[in-house]
Amino acid sequence: MAASQVRVEFIETSRGGRHLAWNGYRYRQNNKRDTWISWKCILTTCKATICTRDDIPTKFGRDHNHPPSPAEVEGMKIISEVRSRARVEMTPIPSIYDEEITKLRDAPWDSQTREVASKLPTFSATKSAMYRARQKTVPPIPSTRQTIQLNDKFQRTTSGELFLQADDGDADRILIFASPDNVEHLCAAPDIYCDGTLRAPPETQQPRPSPTYNSRDVYSTLPRPYGGRHNH
Ligand SMILES: [Zn+2]
């Protein structure tokens, strides 16, 4: 078979680099010129290499001097997927980890699946790298109202409509979120029901914010409760 017909995969490493995976072996980048890359086996004592151009294998070098570890490579792929989802999704990281691990149950429970499961790091062993990955795209949890950062991504809905309708004030900053459609519904509604919670907001320094969820679809974060409060 021509080298270019061999299917290789790439696994994102915890430091943001890539490893090449093929046939139960892992390789790290050794040399690079434009789109040409030479990869060397992850084991320092092994001289096996693969060359790729545009991520397609062009040449296989020496053979490995050790057996492959397909279970370890599969485990790395799972952890890499968790890390990459942690970066782009807002799903809680423990849930992403559970979801990805659960996929192993769909595989036949044979000796290889058991070995993959046994090689997987526990959540507590890998969580720091996961949270680091998320911090690259999600602003840190604000300690004051003034430091809440809302870049464009957090000002729009997933379909690109403006979601942040008002951002006013400093220490008493008020944020109001609603899609244009829902503002129209709210304006047309004969009755508007409001409710509030003091428990949902992230912990911040005083004054503690009081997010108030107006109607079904308009959300505001207020610096303090306005009007009366229920006593029950
Ligand atoms: Zn090797």
How would you describe this structure to a colleague?
This protein is of the alpha+beta class and 232 residues long. It folds into three domains: 3-60, N-terminal domain of TfIIb (Single Sheet); 70-135, no CATH class; 152-222, no CATH class. It has six helices and eleven strands. The protein has helices at residues 70-88, 93-102, 111-119, 123-135, 152-155, 180-188; strands spanning 9-12, 18-22, 25-33, 36-41, 49-53, 56-60, 164-168, 174-177, 194-196, 210-214, 218-222. Helix 1 packs across helix 3 and helix 1 (70-88) crosses helix 4. The radius of gyration is 25 Å and the shape is elongated. The protein starts with 8 loop residues before the first strand and ends in a 10-residue tail after the last strand. The chain binds zinc ion (ZN). The site of zinc ion has 7 residues, from loops. Zinc ion binds at residues 25, 41, 43, 46, 48, 64, 66. It comes from Pinctada imbricata (Atlantic pearl-oyster). InterPro entries: Znf_FLYWCH (IPR007588).
Short description:
This protein is of the alpha+beta class and 232 residues long.
Strand order of the largest sheet: 1-2-3-4-5-6
As a percent range, the share of helical residues equals: 25-40%
Count structural domains: 3
C-alpha Rg (nearest Å): 25 Å
Estimate the mean pLDDT confidence.
83
Q: Which percent range describes the beta-strand content?
A: 15-25%
Head-to-tail CA distance between termini? 75 Å
Overall shape: it is elongated
Structural class: alpha+beta
Provide key terms for this protein.
232 residues, alpha+beta, N-terminal domain of TfIIb, 3 domains, six-stranded antiparallel sheet, five-stranded antiparallel sheet, 11 strands, 28% helix, 24% strand, binds zinc ion, metal-binding, FLYWCH-type domain-containing protein, zinc, zinc-finger, Znf_FLYWCH
